[in-house]
Write a structure and sequence with these properties.
The chain is α+β, with helices and mostly antiparallel strands. It contains 5 helices and 18 strands. The chain starts with a helix and ends in a 7-residue tail after the last strand.
């Protein structure tokens, strides 16, 4: 019995010695690490799992710089491994890969005019300060209807306080110009010769193209920087356009956002504009009447679809065409 006990003890000692040697060799050649994967893709190896996870949690819970919240669709998984001691671990690369997979949503505050966003700033207090200053410079008859809405979006894009004030002051000036144009047009309309038909042209007006009015005078949307100075009539490409009244062509050319533009002078300071034409069939100096096809409907210039943009101007000031047509 003593003999067998001695043999077992001796065998165990040999096994322990061999294990120690193996462990020593492993420690010399290898080191413990964690393989990090997301959706089965290996990002790299790290030595401190807890430290990496703590950094990820701190990144997710960061609320600086107007961050509302962050979402990571799939968190990393860790698998314990022994790796070659000379192999570099990639803590920073792993953390950057996790950060790149995150979706960050920001909270900003938009200053609105008539419910439409015009400038964004980082805090509600800043938005209120801007509104107070802009409103303090409004005349008694001027209404701007300013407001604030909280905005959540993944693109972080805000204006400085000065930029926001400049934007709102531009809106204010645009509204002032429209009011002045309306006053001027009203004044001209009362002094311009009125014919038997009761309109400023002194003659019956002709509808330039049949179609549906898709945008009215004075409206505003994201496709234009200021209020609409005419009406848009939706019609198919190539539909013929006729002038609203007889007159002389003063413009037949491509002109920026108007695209292909035809202008007809009807006398007494009255002009009509026909914009976004696909084709122009008239030349400057040509006399036209309501039976002349001056162009074709298109979508040239700053246009989101096939339509005719019609303007009527009195002494250079745009007036609402729907006072006379459609």
């Amino acid at each position: 019995m003593k003999y067998y006990t001695k043999e077992i003890t001796k065998t165990l000692q040999i096994i322990i010695f061999i294990l120690i040697i193996i462990f020593t060799i492993l420690c010399i050649k290898y080191k413990p690490a964690y393989k990090v994967t997301i959706s089965g893709e290996t990002l790299g190896f790290v030595t401190e799992k807890q430290a990496i996870q703590a950094n990820i949690n701190n990144y997710i819970n960061d609320k600086t710089n107007n961050i509302a919240f962050r979402e990571i669709e799939e968190m990393p998984e860790y698998e314990f491994k022994f790796i070659n001691r000379n192999k570099e671990t990639k803590e920073r690369e792993v953390l950057l890969a996790v950060e790149d997979s995150a979706v960050t949503t920001y909270r900003t505050y938009a200053v609105t005019v008539d419910g439409e966003e015009f400038a964004k700033v980082g805090s509600q207090n800043e938005a209120e300060t801007i509104i107070e200053e802009v409103e303090s410079n409004l005349s008694e008859e001027m209404e701007l209807n300013l407001g604030i809405i909280e905005v959540f979006e993944t693109d972080y894009n805000i204006n400085s306080e000065e930029e926001a004030k400049d934007i709102l002051n531009e809106v204010k000036l645009a509204k002032v110009r429209v009011k002045e144009a309306e006053k001027k047009a009203k004044s001209v309309a009362t002094t311009t010769r009125v014919g038997a038909t009761g309109n400023i042209f002194g003659m019956p007006l002709s509808i330039p193209v049949s179609g549906v009015v898709s945008s009215r005078f004075g409206s505003r949307d994201s496709s234009r920087a200021s209020t609409h100075t005419g009406v848009d009539i939706r019609a198919g490409v190539g539909t013929g356009i006729r002038p609203v009244a007889p007159g002389t062509v003063t413009t037949s050319e491509y002109r920026g956002g108007y695209g292909n533009l035809i202008i007809v002078d009807h006398g007494n300071g009255v002009e009509s504009y026909y914009a976004h034409c696909n084709d122009m069939y008239v030349t400057v100096g040509q006399y036209v009447d309501t039976n002349t096809t001056i162009g074709a409907v298109g979508s040239t210039g700053n246009s989101t679809g096939s339509h005719l943009h019609l303007e009527i101007r009195i002494n250079g000031a745009p007036v609402n065409p729907q006072n006379y047509l459609y």
